[in-house]
Amino acid sequence: MPLKIPDTLPAVDILKKENIFVMDDTRAHTQDIRPLKIVILNLMPLKITTETDLIRLLSNTPLQIDIIFMKLKSHTPKNTPIEHMMMFYKDFDKIEKEKFDGMIITGAPVENYEYEEVTYWDEIKRIFEWSKSHVTSTLYICWAAQAGLYYHYGIPKYHLKKKMFGIFEQYCLDAKLPIFRGFDDIFFMPHSRHTEIRKQDILNDNRLSLIAESQESGVSIVMANNGREFFITGHLEYAPYTLDQEYKRDLGKRDDVDMPKNYYKDNDPELPPVVRWRAHGNLFFTNWINYYVYQETPFDISEIK
């Protein structure tokens, strides 16, 4: 997929070295087509890593995509240079009058707080509400999935005694859905979270569809409004070594984090991880763009409602 992103974004050089086709602004202006507009609200601490992970997955169809990164006005990230944020990110209030074909909202390291205790919760609520009338389809990932289900549908989260951490088998519950086109019956997904949502709460709300789950990691993917909203409790976007970095960051500092399950070769953290989720991660994002964004969004983007 030709992705229209700023020429100087660090992800550009990284992905070109992986032979992933990324179209910079200069070349994109020479193509006479309407690109899809995708806005990404990146709440993860390591912004550049997450940018790269998501752009990598949005690069698999022949459609041109205009990527816009959004930041919160009510929160200043500590782990990304302010110069990077000022150059590549826009505040919500600068783009809230615009409409977008798709939106991705990432996880955030605030799971152990109640939603109302999160310092930027009021701004997040505004964005969640805005997305209902300004975006064709939204992907909520990890904490954002839990927060979105809570805000839109009143679904609670529950704290875990031990972090749900590792690579877990997931089962498609409705293989006929376009989001699962090309999927195997079982696929793998990384999980990295201290809280969960529970199956019965989802089943009790007829506005929600549980479309993938795991015997070990529980609720996996929830869909609402015929695909206008997807809530993903794991991280199909993760790069191979992300869980390794998280594990070694927390090693010796927390007593609720074990070695990630089903991750390292021979369960030895001195050996490299076994990547089991890459193909389905690419397929999931491609299906989302094709069937729930491109084929659903109006040609006149102002008609999104």
Automatic annotation (TrEMBL):
CDD domains cross-referenced by the UniProt entry: GATase1_HTS
Keyword Acyltransferase: yes
InterPro entries named in the record: Class_I_gatase-like (IPR029062), HST_MetA (IPR005697), MetA_family (IPR033752)
Catalytic reactions on record: L-homoserine + acetyl-CoA = O-acetyl-L-homoserine + CoA
Pathway info: Amino-acid biosynthesis; L-methionine biosynthesis via de novo pathway; O-acetyl-L-homoserine from L-homoserine: step 1/1
Main localisation: cytoplasm
Subcellular location: Cytoplasm
Binding positions (substrate): 163, 192, 249
Matching Gene3D superfamilies: 3.40.50.880
Location of the active site: 142 (acyl-thioester intermediate), 235 (proton acceptor), 237
GO-annotated cellular components: cytoplasm
Residues of the site described as Important for acyl-CoA specificity: 111
Annotated site residue numbers, Important for substrate specificity: 192
Keywords in alphabetical order: Acyltransferase, Amino-acid biosynthesis, Cytoplasm, Methionine biosynthesis, Transferase
GO MF, any single term: homoserine O-acetyltransferase activity
Family: Belongs to the MetA family.
NCBIfam families, per database record: metA
Function, as annotated: Transfers an acetyl group from acetyl-CoA to L-homoserine, forming acetyl-L-homoserine.
UniProt-recorded name of the protein: Homoserine O-acetyltransferase
Organism of provenance: Prevotella pectinovora
Gene expressing this chain: metAA
